[in-house]
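User: My instructor asked us to take a sequence, write out its structure as tokens, and then describe one feature of it. I'm not sure where to start. Here is the sequence I was given:
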Amino acid sequence: MRKIDKIVVHCTAGNQSNTARDIVDYHTRPVSRGGCGWKTPGYHYIIEADGRIVNTVPEDRVSNGVKGHNATAINVCYIGGVDVTKKGLPPVDNRTPAQKASLVSLLRMLRGKYPQAKIYGHRDFAPKACPSFDAKTEYAGL
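Assistant: Let's start with the prediction itself. The structure tokens for your sequence are:
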């Protein structure tokens, strides 16, 4: 069993019409075909716009969420996080009410399983906007 000390929240930085399958396919598709070429997707869980939580990587396996931190992290992600109607795809907190509720539910469940783990946003480890809101502050009480 892996020692989990971080639960990291991400956004996909893409269109909210995408599905978890779309994200997994993009992560694992060869670079020569426009993907990332990863062996394992970036997130253990992806929350679709309708709030459906999709487990994409078993928790006992490492995902590709935050370089240098994945060995001890569970990575969760919601679909969205950018304004697809604007040039440059600026970050925006566009979580649907269903995504917000599912994120809280999932994070509570994970904190129950890993009580020593702290909740972070990807932005706490890298100069990024991801997840387009301050997850560390928002979920500090969980």
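For the description part of your assignment, you could build on this observation: The first strand starts at residue 6 and ends at 11. Try explaining in your own words what that tells you about the chain.
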